[in-house]
Every structure is written in C-alpha cells, then in structure tokens.
Amino acid sequence: MEQFAFIIALLAIGILLQKADAPVDFAKSLNFFVIYVSLPATVLLQVPKIHFDASALGVILIPWLLLPIVIALVILMTRKHPPHVRAALLLVMPLGNTSFVGIPIIHTLLGEEAIPYVLMYDQFGTFLILSLYGAAVIARYETGIFHKRLIVKKLLLFPPFVFLIFALLFGQMPSSAQPYLPTLASTLVPLSLISVGYSMKFGGEVDYGLFTQSLILKLILMPLISFGILVAMGTEPLALKTAVLESGMPSMITAGALAIAAGFAPALSAALVGYGIIVSLVTLPIISYMIK
Hints:
The protein is mainly α and 292 residues long. It has 14 helices and no strands. It has helices spanning 2-17, 26-46, 54-77, 83-92, 102-110, 115-141, 148-157, 159-170, 181-185, 188-199, 208-233, 237-247, 253-261, 266-290.
C-alpha cells in the first residue's frame, strides 16, 4: 500500500510541476535519460534472469494475439465515426504504457521477480508493435510516405532494444559493473512516473460514450481476454499475472502523442492517456487481486 501511495505521489509531483517554471521540453529530458540510461540498466540487470520456456513465449505472444482482436473491436466501435477518430483509437488502444507505468506498478503489485516478464512484454510486444504497426497506422491515415527503412533503423538503434539483444546474447555483466546497475536502474521508477504526471493532459471536447467504451476495452476487456488465452496455454502463475496486468495498462503516452501530432482526435487521444492512467490505478490492483 505504501508503494502504491508512492506511485500516486510521484504522478502528483509531475502534475504539480506543470504549474512550475520548468525548462523547455522537461518531460522529453526525463524520457531521454530513462530511455538511454535507466531502461538499459534495468534490462542489463533483469534480462539475464529470464528463462525462455512456454510461459515466456506466452508473455511475448499475448500483445500480438491481442492486436487483431483490438483492431476488429475498434473498427466495430467506430463504424459511425470519422476516419480520424478511428485512426486515433487504432493507435492508442492496442498500445499500453507497459514500461513507464507498467514497470513501477507491476513491481509494486507482483514484486521484482516479475520485471523480466515485463521487459519481455514491453520490448518484444509493445515496442515492436509501436515501431511497425504504429507507423503503418499513421501512414494509412495521414498524408505522407511510409519510410520502411527509417522504421527499421529506429528499431535497431533504440537503446533498450539494443541492450536487450546484448543481454540475451552475453548474459550478466562483469562483476565489476554489477554493483552500479541497481543504482542506475533505480532511477527508472521516479523519473518515468514524474514524466508521465507532467505529460498528462485533460479537457477538450470528447465523445464520452466512445471514451467510456474505449476505457472499458483497454482496462477491463483486454486483460480478461489475455487471462483466457494464457490459462488455455497453461502459463505459469507469475508470467500469467504479469502479462494480464501488462495487457490492462493505460494507453501509451507516445501513442497518444503520435495521434495528437497527426491530428487524430486530439482531445479523445489525450483524455484516454490522462484519465486512463488515473482509472488504471483502481483497475490494476483489482485485477491483480482477482487473479491471485
């Protein structure tokens, strides 16, 4: 409970800092450090603990299995809405905040032993889906050119992904580096949550019927579907709980930012990201309790 209160406090600090005279691109600076230092250190610390078995495979497969299901449901939900609304939901619904929000919340709910599964879900699932599928959605609904080569380049040079491959190939870092990795990795939770709080946006004209349906799909139906698939696969408990909670994370801030930048229902996209984080602080502990 104290750790959960700490998560809320960090989000509140980020929200309060919106009123301060913060440096330009404050959130981007925090994200830069997290992406280039905190996440790589966490990857190097946790990934060598991963044992690739059927449960690990289930964790990796779940976001990809959910993707076509969510796409079909979004198309059904938006059949009477304009294309830019559909484009927004196609971006923000399949993609969850599985690292910046996922890591601290799952660390609180399930403990540190669940973090390797979080990294697998995030890097092999969410990150790849954002890079490949997200770019395809933007190319489909926004005027422009689909730069396949640029997408592959960004994928291969993304620091956490590079360090993930390194950790999978070479295992634990030398003993001389081991004492310093926890210190660098410990910056992930506070910096990422403050950045999330600082980036949260509210307000604007929103279709509250569609907004409510979208939150239900993102925070309740997706983890329920995930639970059913993983139980059918015989996934071991910790991997199952981690993947279910990851699939119930609120919409990814980056996906929301891309939707807003492309002009895809900006108010709806911002509301799903901002309010989704707040609502998920209620839904995720409930889901965690129900699958114990």
